[in-house]
Amino acid sequence: MAQSSLAPAAAPAAHEKLKALGILALNGMFDEMDAVSVLRYAITEVLPGDMAIVSSFGADSAVLLHMVAQVDPSLPVYFLETGKHFPETLDYVETLKKQLGLLNVHAIHPNPDDVKRFDPNGDLWETDPDSCCHIRKTEPLEPITEQYGGWVTGRKRYQTSERGVLPHFELTSDDRIKVNPLAYFSDADVIEYRQAHSLPEHPLYAKGYKSIGCAPCTSAVADGEDPRAGRWRGLNKKECGIHYDFNGAIASPMSAATRHTLWKDGAFIADPFKEWAEGANPSEARYVHVPMAEFLANREAYLANPHPLGLKVSPGDAIEEAADDLARFASIAISFPAFTDGRGYSTARLLVERLNYAGEIRAVGDVLQDQIPHMWRCGFNALVVTHEPTREALKEDRLPEMALFYQPVGLSEVPMGTRPFLRRVS
């Protein structure tokens, strides 16, 4: 199976035809069971050359992939290889590729640095399945789907009550199209189609696995149970996070700008860290920036906590008090409660220049575009930005430039009004 490397160069289409037709009119063009026509129209008319499919290669995947092979076997097919799949699923990928003649299947793997950082023991699914899905599914997939105008899913109305109003075509809040050719198919329809076309069955289907995801979070279902009852059984979880349903019941529709406020490595990316909640148990906290005072008051408990943590430093906090424990934290968030409060710059410089902290240093709070060049100079390598003009300035690479410095950083910057040859090297 090919490793996904180069993404399509084309930007998402403007969807002019879809806008002209209207989403309701488009959904009214097809019979409920005319899945192949829905798929063909989406691929050849709505977004030609600008659509892909994301497949789990699970229990029902052969049906949709067979339709793809009929319409366009070269359509890009992406498989999330989370590192947690059943061996039978990986074998099934190769079986379907060969039997259906799929020409463009790519595996998407999680970022190994993220796995090492947030799930070093591989057991995150036990304690925080949402974060596990985020690292292994949502974040790896998003850069791929963002480069297409639309993508095809295998979701069906019968699978859960939340999917009960699923249409053939969805227009997402970020102006993309999601196509659900099998939206009206029942379990019996899937079985009938699979048998009619002699499609290979997933090796685990006969053992009671009616919906198949990652091995640790998938179990067999009993007769009469919801087909997805075996996914995250016993947990208050129904979706992995890559789907935002038509009715908003699974996840509220959000724009990319709302979802992604963390700017790092030249782009807005999904943030694994969550907001700190007062009263959190120090031994159970994970993916939060612990306030400095809270950490110092419960230092031993936080040091014994095996989960990824960050540290939040507010104005007035002395970062030196945590100097011996900085390596414990995957991220340090420095708060700027107001544009005019510059104490955070000094904290960042202390972390980098004296305390030799090499992890993520992020600015949070009142982060505006005029501040950002100063932040980079002082050691920040990540920013949480909600101010829309600043977000646009970052995206368009039009931050203000600085050539003169009253307070230099390092030896390469010269204070305005001084003679560089008189500077003392110490």
TrEMBL record:
Binding sites annotated in the UniProt record for [4Fe-4S] cluster: 132-133, 214, 217
Co-factor(s): [4Fe-4S] cluster
Gene3D superfamilies for the chain: HUPs
InterPro entries: PAPS/APS_Rdtase (IPR004511), PAPS_reduct_dom (IPR002500), Rossmann-like_a/b/a_fold (IPR014729), UCP030820 (IPR008318)
Annotated signal sequence range: none
Catalyzed reactions: [thioredoxin]-disulfide + sulfite + AMP + 2 H(+) = adenosine 5'-phosphosulfate + [thioredoxin]-dithiol
Active site: 240
Free-text cofactor note: Binds 1 [4Fe-4S] cluster per subunit.
Alphabetized UniProt keyword annotations: Cytoplasm, Iron, Iron-sulfur, Metal-binding, Oxidoreductase
E.C. number: 1.8.4.10
GO molecular function terms noted in the UniProt entry: 4 iron, 4 sulfur cluster binding; adenylyl-sulfate reductase (thioredoxin) activity; metal ion binding; phosphoadenylyl-sulfate reductase (thioredoxin) activity
Location(s) in or outside the cell: Cytoplasm
Domain Phosphoadenosine phosphosulphate reductase: 52-220
Similarity-based family: Belongs to the PAPS reductase family. CysH subfamily.
NCBIfam families from the UniProt entry: cysH, PRK02090.1
Function: Catalyzes the formation of sulfite from adenosine 5'-phosphosulfate (APS) using thioredoxin as an electron donor.
Protein name (database record): Adenosine 5'-phosphosulfate reductase
Organism from which the protein derives: Devosia marina
Taxonomy of the source species: Bacteria, Pseudomonadati, Pseudomonadota, Alphaproteobacteria, Hyphomicrobiales
